[in-house]
Amino acid sequence: MIREDAKGLIIEHANKFKLPEEKTQEIQDKRKYFQTEFSKEKITSLDKDHFFQGKGIKQGNFTYELEWNSKCLGGIGGGSVYKFGYEEDFDKIKRLLLKLLSAENSIEQFYTHDGDLIKFFKRDHKRC
Questions:
Q1: Where do the H-state alpha helices sit in the chain?
Q2: Higher confidence at residue 76 or residue 90?
Q3: Lowest mean pLDDT among 11-20, 49-58, 73-82
Q4: Contact criterion met (CB below 8 Å) for 43 and 99
Q5: In this structure, are residues 43 and 92 in contact, taking their beta carbons and an 8 Å threshold?
Q6: pLDDT-derived band of residue 1, with 50, 70 and 90 as boundaries?
Q7: pLDDT score of 29 more than 60
Q8: Exposure string for 66-82, b = 16+ CB within 10 A, e = fewer
Q9: Rounded distance, CA 82 to CA 78, Å?
Q10: pTM, rounded to two decimals
């Protein structure tokens, strides 16, 4: 847990932070790649071999691409692959991904001005 005063400082500094233009462009390009590569249609037809790592597929594998091809977006490389869920929960994971993709492309769709998750996401992310 983060103390309220520390949380306030983090949010204040985060609001002042600005990326250099070239980094912003790299992030926009990578986000556009993910939006195209993993569209709603693609997620709907995604099978376990193209979602979970370790199935011999790297290019076009959702979790591999997210973990290792997203460094400029913050990257989540390393650690247990179970951070992406368990195979028996695959249908639930896909439903959550589709719900996330249905949201507007804005931070306000996910977080309040205080940095808390909004109900749109808070209610459903615990189901997986």
A1: 4-16, 21-37, 40-45, 62-68, 90-102, 119-125
A2: 90
A3: 73-82
A4: no
A5: no
A6: low
A7: yes
A8: bbebbeeeeeeeeeeee
A9: 11
A10: 0.64
Q: Token pair for residue 37?
A: 């590569």
Q: With b meaning 16 or more CB within 10 Å and e meaning fewer, what string describes 14-39?
A: eeeeeeeeeeeeeeeeeeeeeeeebe
Q: Which residues contact 118 (CB under 8 A, 6 or more apart)?
A: 108, 109, 110, 111, 112
- At 117 the three-state DSSP class reads strand
Residue 108 has pLDDT above 70, yes or no: no
Contacts of 81 (CB under 8 A, 6+ apart): 52, 53, 54, 63
Q: Is 111 helix (H, G, I), strand (E, B) or coil?
A: strand
In this structure, what token pair is assigned to residue 122? 């808070």
The whole-number pLDDT of residue 101 equals 81
